[in-house]
Amino acid sequence: METINRTENFIIIEDCSLKKFNTLRIESKAKIVIFPLNNQGVQEVFENFTDRKIIILGNGSNILLSKQYYDEDYIFISFKHMNDIYFKDNTIYAETGVTLSELSWFALEKGVQGFEFLEDVPGSVGGATIMNAGTYQDMIGDILSTVTYYSTKLNKVLTDEVQESFFGKRYSIWGDRGDIILSASFEIQERIADYESILNKLLENKKTRYMKQPRDYPNAGSVFKRPYKNGKGYYVWKLFEGCNLRGYQIGSAMISDKHPGFIVNLDDATPEDILSLLDVAQTRVKTKYGINLELEWKII
Questions:
Q1: Which of 60, 72, 83, 246 pairs as cysteine with 22 (C-beta 3.0–4.6 A)?
Q2: pLDDT score for 205
Q3: Rounded to an integer, what distance in angstroms lies between the CA atom of residue 68 and that of residue 108?
């Protein structure tokens, strides 16, 4: 049974089910899950649990929990309670736990354009900053102004003015260093009084993704990074089509028949089901096309 303890700066849940904290809805349990309430709480967690393996859950997308139980050697951190967002001095400030969808709609409410591409992109501000998330055309690094983070190496909270060189494709310097994103700011260049055009873009983005992506079953977003061979980029779903992987199923895990770039949990898929499916997909693509698929997910 779960037990809950609270300090001034964080909440601890022991024997916590992780099913609701991962978008694949894998059944797993952790001995300790910590919910920081502020920046000081984050710093205290890292200071107090230096002997444990610390796992950041974020919004629970882009991860695969590979164990049924994570003992006291692991500490999971969820930023569900660090989700404040506000507008001041022509700047949007968002804590790490704010979802990208919440950010895009908040910008709409303030008459701010340029955030529409984030609607329906899975993840939170913190995780998105770490991996420079977005679409094929636009990424969150393009609109960030400052990033506040906890440096695990220096054991202090710092703020960086964002530079273009800090980002790459699904890459950021904070992720490279192992920093923990606490909040971010987005300086607004222009506000508009009539936001109907922004609303239309938001709804169109949402409709496009709903039409293309599987929404009827739990999934964790795109499984593999877009691969390249001899300088040419390939679409994962097309490679899967060529390998007859659309709808391929092991146990309750299935390569989506709607969009083969996704793996879905049909009912009660186990980590073993999904790991076996990943292995089959990578092996077939390597055999037929000579292309090595690299996971976009993180396996915990």
A1: 60
A2: 84
A3: 41
